[in-house]
From TrEMBL:
The protein's required cofactors: pyridoxal 5'-phosphate
Residue stretches in coiled coil: none
InterPro entries tied to this protein: DegT/StrS_aminotransferase, PyrdxlP-dep_Trfase, PyrdxlP-dep_Trfase_major, PyrdxlP-dep_Trfase_small
Key word RNA-binding present: no
UniProt similarity note: Belongs to the DegT/DnrJ/EryC1 family.
Keywords for the protein's UniProt record, in alphabetical order: Pyridoxal phosphate
Identification of the protein by name: Cell wall aminitransferase
Keyword Ribonucleoprotein: no
Transmembrane segments: none
Length: 379
């Protein structure tokens, strides 16, 4: 097969005229900050995932941090998985907590309930449960022995039916290469009215939004009329500046409409890979979102395969280098599963921008790699 001239990215966002029209409408409205688009996005997202409340923020990372701060989770032990992005280790540290990193299940790469149980400390009060690559974390199993706060990290699972409803609150990501991208951004969902009412003012320095004060009818100021603008506000809590703006929400609303079709195509790519790749490629756990297609190969040839595919203009990645290997959060303990499995990981291209020819191209060159040499060790 002839080598393509352009690069096939491992991940990429896909948009169309709908996003452009929605952005144009927002630009022309004159309301670019947090306003009606954000309110609508929050309402429709909460409805989609089955949560009572949703708070749109600038990123899932800020969402996690905001939940910790709203609940006053400080100076305690927080368990999180080593196969994850740095967010899950950093957020506990931002809140002066211990980042207690544990090992993972060899198949799903999610939290290993047995290791979670062994790693519990007297002051363990929270767990961050990541749905790795969209595969649900074993929260029900962990609930059998842990009754503290569980934050479900749904950055990879937008939208898996039931995701976001297993923990006490959930965070979602709309970063540029996620299943529902907006460039960046995130959402917090919860069924707790108390948590929701704490979160809303905290997204903007403890201030009610300009949009909410524009809509409100207030008698605080003499002569204020219905639909007028109430310029006055109180600041009763220490807040932060991490609210989503309408320009971001405008993209999110259109991406939400396309999400079912995009996920269906991601699963199609997953099925083709599972059915057509050489059997020396280890298949990942089935994912409804296929945020990443985390294949596995013999550790001794992983980097060679990455370089081989790069020569064919196919970009790959590794999701993820274990958190415990970073000096800033290094732990004094063993990680037998993660240390073995991450060296075998290779994420193959998987996104709605791929054509059938692109999928075939990846399959052909992965299989060709094993055909070209009889020295490849058996998986």
């Amino acid at each position: 097969m002839e080598i393509r001239k352009d690069i096939l990215p491992v991940l990429r966002p896909v948009s169309g005229v709908e996003e452009i029209a929605s952005l144009a409408e927002t630009l022309e409205s004159g309301w670019w900050g947090k306003g009606p688009k954000v309110a609508k996005f929050e309402e429709e997202f909460a409805k989609m995932v089955g949560a009572k409340y949703a708070v749109a923020v600038t990123s899932a990372t800020h969402g996690q941090d905001l939940v910790f701060k709203a609940l006053g989770i400080r100076h305690v032990d927080v368990i999180n998985p080593t196969i994850s992005f740095m967010t899950t280790a950093a957020v506990p540290l931002w809140n002066d907590c211990t980042s207690n990193i544990v090992d993972v299940d060899p198949h799903t790469l999610n939290l290993d309930p047995n290791d979670v149980k062994k790693s519990l400390r007297i002051n363990t009060e929270a767990i961050i449960a990541v749905n790795h690559a969209g595969v649900p974390a074993p929260i029900a199993e962990i609930r059998e022995f842990f009754d503290g706060f569980i934050l479900e990290d749904c950055a990879h699972s937008c939208y898996v039916p039931g995701a976001g409803l297993q923990g006490d609150a959930a965070v979602w990501s709309f970063q540029a290469v996620k299943t529902m991208p907006t460039g960046d951004g995130g959402m917090i969902t919860t069924n707790s009215k108390e948590l929701y009412e704490k979160l809303v003012p905290m997204t903007w320095l403890g201030i009610s939004s300009t949009y909410s004060r524009t809509l409100a009818t207030s008698s605080l100021i003499p002569g204020n009329k219905p639909g007028g603008y109430n310029w006055d506000y109180e600041v009763d809590v220490l807040g932060y500046k991490c609210y989503m703006i309408d320009l971001t929400a405008a993209i999110g609303l259109e991406q939400m409409k396309k999400l079912p079709k995009n996920l269906e195509y991601r699963r199609h790519i997953q099925s083709r890979y599972n059915n057509e790749l050489d059997m020396k490629i280890g298949r990942p756990a089935w994912s409804e979102t296929v945020q990443y297609y985390c294949a596995r190969v013999d550790a001794e040839i992983r980097n060679d395969l990455i370089n081989y595919l790069a020569d064919k203009k196919i970009h790959t990645s590794v999701h993820f280098k274990p958190l415990h290997l970073y000096q800033i959060v290094k732990q004094n303990r063993e990680y037998p599963v993660a240390d073995q499995e991450w060296r075998r990981l290779i994420s193959l291209p998987c996104h709605p921008g791929m054509t059938e020819e692109d999928i075939s191209y990846v399959i052909y060159w992965v299989n060709q790699y094993f055909k070209e040499s009889h020295k490849r060790e058996k998986f």
